[in-house]
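Q: For a teaching handout, I want to show students what a protein-ligand complex looks like in token form. Below are the inputs, and the small molecule is iron/sulfur cluster. Please produce the holo structure.
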Amino acid sequence: MRDSKYHSVKPIIDPAKPQLYIETYGCQMNVNDSEVVLSVMQDAGYSLCEMMEDADVIFVNTCSIRENAEQRVFGRLDLFRLEKQRRPDVVVGVLGCMAERLKEELFDHPAVDIVAGPDSYRDLPRLVEGAKGGRGQINVWLSHDETYADISPVRMDRNGVSAFISIMRGCNNVCSYCIVPFVRGAERSREPQSIINEAESLIANGYKEINLIGQNVDSYLWLDPSNTSRQINFARLLEKVALIDRKVRVRFSTSHPKDMSNSVLYTMAMYDNICKHIHLPVQSGSNAMLEKMNRKYTRESYLERINRIREILPGCSVTTDVIAGFCGETEQDHLETLSLLEEVQFDGAFMFQYSERPGTKAARRFADDVPPDVKKARLNQIIALQNDISLRNNQYSVGREYQVLVEGSSKRSDEQLMGRTSQNKTCVFPAAGYKAGDLVRVKVTSCTSATLICEAIS
Ligand code: SF4
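A: Here is the structure, written as tokens, with iron/sulfur cluster included.
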């Protein structure tokens, strides 16, 4: 096993080496996977480059969760094909969820030399060598135990403040609409000491915030192979990471309503440096839809979880995911989603209309029968309502003070900084000598539905 303690976590840029260009689509798990890929390729002698035109190898790390995510990747492959016409020796690899879902079919696109699923990244240097001989290379084997625990990801973020650590891979839940269990395989929890080592290494390299990520972090469970009565669950892991350095913030996602335990909530309450934000995807407010989605909780049990969060963690923000227009969704089901949003008053939400994914249980068993214009209208209603609620929640913050971890300049101006509160609210305020990584006390002066406008007070 490679010792991950305190090694350099930043890319080594060396124009004399073969150049690797990586594009990443999809969720934070994919971003973290690209960092694993860079680590593997850097060990094989490659150096990261910023422009596709400089690359000897181009990787695109993909997402299959919605059809339009795949369409975007095909658009990029068309562009890579032009690059290959200009420089035929360039090797192009499709990595991740699309590689796992489409397998050999991807070779139908003339740009593609390598197809590599999410558990095959150790094999990439060999696949690249094989592809240089002009033959398509594929590895889409899904593992029951691969966690990349001994690989220290090389961070590609630009801020050097907030980093993501994968604590598990795959998912066992099989929500009926979701492609993830098919493309990322069965759930595997990563050995806890390797997670602690990675967090220590990041902190030693100046990171101020650690994000523990997995498809369903609440089902994290490590059984000590030498003594299976010794277990570490997510609450315990969270505590261990929080204790590494009480000045470093710890976040996590994604939580599952059926698995989120009170012990996680009590652990969050116990440590100031565990951020007070929970992303708890509800997907629908209708029990009929939740059952069809195979979510394994009801509207009532979800609301009970929300009540416990508010009891144990007053002031904790809660965000969610919502799907509009799932198979068979009636107007009444939709109204129940709207009423749940009203009842919970989420701080924010990711809202999508249902997009059928081939191979899922929903695609096999249920008709995608909500007409596109109805889906769209329902989604718009959901977005409009949630925007109102987010704005009201943010207005409550006006005049209040928060501690903000600065991540860098705001999108609009270098004279403004952007950071987040413990509740994961985005704050913008005049730079006034502060910089990325600073913890700054701010007062909220006004807001939009997405941003708190602030002034620094210390
Ligand atoms: S919990 Fe459900 S939605 Fe989330 S990754 Fe697993 S199967 Fe997909």
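A: Two things your students might notice: The longest helix spans residues 372-397. The pocket of iron/sulfur cluster is lined by residues 171, 173-175, 178, 180-181, 215-216, 256 (CB under 6 Å).
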